[in-house]
Design a protein that fits this description.
Blueprint (H helix, E strand, L loop, with lengths): L15 H12 L4 E5 L21 H8 L5 E5 L4 H8 L11 E4 L4 E4 L4 E4 L4 H16 L7 E4 L4 E4 L6 H18 L3 E4 L3 E5 L5 H12 L3 E6 L5 H12 L3 E7 L5 H6 L2 E3 L1 H15 L2
Parallel strand pairs: 1-2, 1-10, 2-3, 10-11, 11-12
Antiparallel strand pairs: 3-4, 4-5, 6-7, 7-9, 8-9
Helix pairs in contact: 2-9, 6-7
Length: about 280
């Protein structure tokens, strides 16, 4: 498939596969899935995760784009209902068929029913939740770290520590051992370590959803290490003739994602600009 003529408002991907992905999306938008991470992609990273909110332009951009494509999905490690609430995604004209895949796909919210469907929680999460405060205190790591309750997972943040990166590195192995004792895994992120059940990640959730809706192309945008499985899933889908465009919501904290992306944009502001440009091109 030939490359379209790109306007100054629609940046050109740097890879041939990315250019093919964008071209397929523009040529047959009714067969395209737009999938996006929440934190760092639709919403800026903030010191307190409970204060995260979608970029002011995110919902208008999604509402302009959603009616023109097969589907829009938010794929997040957060509980689905939290992402909906913090994103202001419920009851928005144009987003009547939005889907939020929360907890890496273990939960699913759809705008049609406004209901969350979820699998049974893993018992190890409750065990870790009860043990974690004493565990952190016992290894002298309590100061400057804090625990985020995520329902089906629990996360330890180090952004407020005196040396956030050193605290992050010091906690990786002890938390991995704690998680393993309770049948969980540790998902590292931007100065956060999340203890969660194995078997589901953003890649699994994304691939299953793309196949469910019969998409021929997919755009995935993310910003963190937890998005690498989704990048890998898009790369695998390409081998099955599903065109893909990988977008990194740029951050100097996560170079691995930028190196694998077809297109790097300037954080949530850049994501909003890209989505708006695609919507305008499809008008």
């Amino acid at each position: 498939m030939g490359d379209p003529e790109y306007s100054s408002e629609l940046p050109e991907p740097v890879t041939p596969a990315g250019r093919e992905g964008l071209a397929a999306l523009l040529a047959r938008p009714g067969k395209a899935v737009i999938a996006l991470d929440f934190d760092g992609t639709l919403a800026a990273i903030v010191p307190d995760p409970e204060q995260a909110r979608a970029h002011p332009g995110a919902v208008p951009a999604l509402a302009a784009l959603a009616p023109k494509v097969r589907s829009v999905a938010v794929v997040t490690g957060r509980p689905a209902g939290v992402a909906v609430r913090y994103g202001g995604l419920a009851g928005v004209p144009g987003l009547e068929h939005l889907v939020v895949l929360g907890h890496y796909g273990a939960e699913r919210w759809d705008a049609v029913s406004s209901a969350v469907h979820a699998a049974d929680p893993h018992p190890g999460v409750a065990a870790v939740r009860a043990e974690l405060p004493g565990f952190l205190d016992g290894i002298g790591a309590w100061r400057g770290t804090w625990i985020e309750e995520k329902g089906r997972a629990v996360a330890v943040h180090t952004r407020r520590a005196r040396d956030p990166q050193a605290a992050f590195e010091a906690l990786r192995d002890p938390l991995a051992e704690l998680a393993s004792r309770h049948g969980l895994i540790v998902e590292p992120g931007r100065l956060v370590l999340e203890l969660r059940p194995p078997g589901m990640d953003k890649g699994v959730a994304l691939a299953e959803y793309v196949r469910e809706v019969g998409a021929e192309s997919v755009l995935y945008a993310g910003d963190d290490l937890g998005d690498l499985p989704a990048f890998a899933a898009v790369e695998k889908l390409r081998s099955d003739q599903v065109r893909g465009l990988l977008v990194c919501s740029g951050s100097s904290e996560v170079v691995e994602l930028a190196e694998r992306a077809d297109l790097v944009v300037d954080g949530p502001e850049g994501v909003v600009t890209l989505l708006s440009a695609i919507a305008a091109r499809l008008s």
